[in-house]
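PT: before anyone asks, these are the final sequences, not the draft ones from last week. 436 residues across everything. Please model them as a single complex and drop the result in this thread when it's through.
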Amino acid sequence: MKAEPKRARFQSSTLPHLDRLVTLASHWADGQEAEDDVQETYTRAWIAFDQLRDVGAAFPWLCQILRTVANERRRTRARRQELVFITELEAAHEEIVASDAPSPLDELLARLEAGRLREALRSIPEDFAEAIELHDGQGLKYREIAQVTSVPIGTVMSRISRGRALLAGLLTFSDEKRAKRGVGT
Amino acid sequence: MTEAALEHARLQELVAAFADGELPPDEGRAVQAHLRGCARCRRELALQQELSRALAKEPARGASAGLRRRIERVGAPAPGRSAFLWKRRWAAPAAAALVLIGIAGAALRGRHGQRPVAEIPMIRDALADCRRVMGRNFPRKADLRAVAEGLQFPVHPLDRPGAELFSTWKTTLAGSPAAGLAYRWRGILVVQYAVPTELIRQQPEVAEALRGAGFYAASEQGQGIIAFLEGGSGTVLVADVPPEELRRLML
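LR: through. Structure below.
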């Protein structure tokens, strides 16, 4: 295979996804580290490009490589702090869905500054946050997320459902409790 | 728990997937029917939809101009170097890029010459194994003890400043068991194969080079392969740098 036609195919298949990959990388790492991860991802993708059979699946494929790169650096665990208090978030979520009162979420979401919701994802467990980011943030289908994260599709379904419930609980958690826990949204 | 409560619990788990249009038609219909009579699940549906919509609207960070330029150079041929070379932001030009992957075997010829390098069985299999592990983005563990277990020869990892071992795996080269080890070193990836000494000696071109220079080196367009014997085992190094540079990693 000639290098230049291959390079042209590589660029047309992967460059349209660059911004999305940087956004996704920012979920796992901060600032320059996120860009370094994306750069490493494209290097590996170029080398393994012959193995990409379906260019329509380039984005999930790149996500999978990026995820491996990020995991290799073992940043995820280091970044995630002791902010998870699942039981209380589940209780807060339950208050929303069990009550006949209008949901406070609409108003909360309308008031939230741009970018803060994605930041809030960092306060829920990584597996849940990752599935939500890949679906809602990056538009991957459940089966693609299953492929990227190497888990059954039923697990993806559960992680997204439960993750959004925790996120809702986090957003509606009272300011007083949030301050006590040191959580920011 | 009543049958209705059990059914509620089951369908409640599917509300998010229903909101995302990810359920098969029969399950979708079951959830839809349940929603008509369950206020709690309707609120759950609204919650899931609201959050999903809000997250989709979150601003994307986007790539910096510098990163975009570097990405656009991926795969670009550099003077005197392979088309596979690519400079990392912090790396010197001579220390760029990656392993021998995707190279047509017939195009690879070593300085020893009688037959293409990629037709030497041990080298051919090493290149194929490189492609395989790179395609899978490298095994995720680096466990020297596990990779050496059961081998009849010692596995000596590279011991050079800055060589960071990040992956190990078992493999077979030319019918012999081998250990694969991957490193980051000065901004490039280096793959090392630990093999039995007999395997090295069974490759005529390699054995001849060992008798002369004490090591085997081959290159094409800047990519290098080094093979040598040390400490009771053979080592094959593969990286996308000239063999002269790769030699600095010899044990």
